[in-house]
Amino acid sequence: MKIAYYAFAVGLLLCLCGTAQSVDLVINPDVSQEAVSRNTLRSIFSMRMTRWPDGTPIHVFVMGDKTNLHADFSKQILGVFPHQLRRAWNRQIYSGMGQAPTKVESEAEMREQVEKTPGAIGYLSKENINERVRTISVE
Amino acid sequence: MSVYGPSLSNSARAVACLITLLCQPGMAPWAAELPGLDKTFQVHGFLTQGYVKTTENSFFGDSEDGSLEFRELGINASHRLTPAIMASAQLLSRRAGEMYDGSLDLDFAQLDYAFQMDEWNRAGIILGRSKNPLGLYNDTRDVAATRPGIFMPQAIYWDRVRNMVLSTDGGQVYGDSQFGNHLFRLQLFTGKTPIDENVENTYLGAGFDPKLDQDGITVGGRLLYEWDGGRLKLALSSASLTLEGGSNVLPTGTIDIDYRVASAQYNSGPWSLTSEYMQEPLDYSGFGGYMEPADTTVDGYYLQGSYRLREDWELLARYEESHYDKHDKDGTKSSARLGPAPHNFFSKVWTLGLLWEPTEHLMLRTEFSQVEGTIFLSVLENPRPSLNEPNWNLFSILVSYSF
Q: Does the model's ipTM exceed the 0.90 cut?
């Protein structure tokens, strides 16, 4: 019986840990930026800041609103809920003040797009990062 | 009847035209970015259909029998020529009972040049027809995916005088500054405002062929403060304009209108709390002195709370109140001065609603409102104020697809 309790406790712990996926910000290797502040990141992902300090156009890539990775990125790194981010994009798109980010269907596509698009920024889970994209830290 | 340039008299034609555009293979959502244009050309749109049922009075159509005359279709295109320059335009067809007939309008068509952009500051200029940034929602008030409910809170965003504050043909300057966690954004606009018959009937009374044109230009703006990426938002907005005209029974005169809104919103996790207060002083001059009793300061406010139940369900509750005269909350003095019964000069509305967003493109809403007073009802839909019922209920459903 005791073993069953332990198994349950370990299972619960694994479940809780499993929901907190770790997500990293990735950029195209040619972007010179070394680190980015959370406020700048919010400007970029709300599509208001459209070029890097060196003048390169910024291209933002995101996963679907309902994916765990997007939810983790929104909540943990930007500090907003996915539906709030969606409304901010909609407010810009339908008033002519901004454009929407480009949606990708998988992490493989995210990695490929960030690798080949100059000025690209996106996010990946740790296990999907390789040398062809660059991670960037959030200050 | 449309004030937005060439108008298709037949709303069905406009709707068919927009649906055809929306269904073009190249413009479907999965192809919203055209190849070869390097992700800088985008097409977006929305289709919204509402159902409105009221126990008494007419709102968005013949709602006592259940109305489907609430439909919004829009399509836009934008092209970011350089990171600093963007051109964009949107076509809109809006059917709202007798208030708007669904004819095709040019909603905005603008060129935006951000001459200053870095990590902390942004400043630019917009030329063309642009949406007026007033309150938290005015610039996207016709887009269900951005509205705080099925209908805009009528205490601030009147549908019966929507065009008075909707857009401006002219210019806008804007500037953003970020200081740590604090963002300040100032937008100033000026130009001509398109006036329509809803505005004419509201300010001069229906039935005597009122005609109003703008005298001079509209000047307005908004100062917005955001803390911690929008956790707290505070805004002050204002627009001023003068209308000139008369009707079959009135000599000519002018109406000076100021529209002022104070807004506050707090977002914390699944909770969102919003409140806005509006004041609109009206000053009639001329008209042979007949309109002077109508001089007043209209005001109104709402308080809305919403709670995200799960990632795709949201509950909302809202209370709103409007007064024709801010010093006469129950309408008795206005009634004695102007004639119609007191309930025509105020409204108090309680609303409960449920939102479901099964996908990021689709939303369904249902709401129930208990209403006392009839101030926000359109005279085009309720031509005899003496027949308006003071206590009524409103039930509505809305489906919207946007991409």
A: no
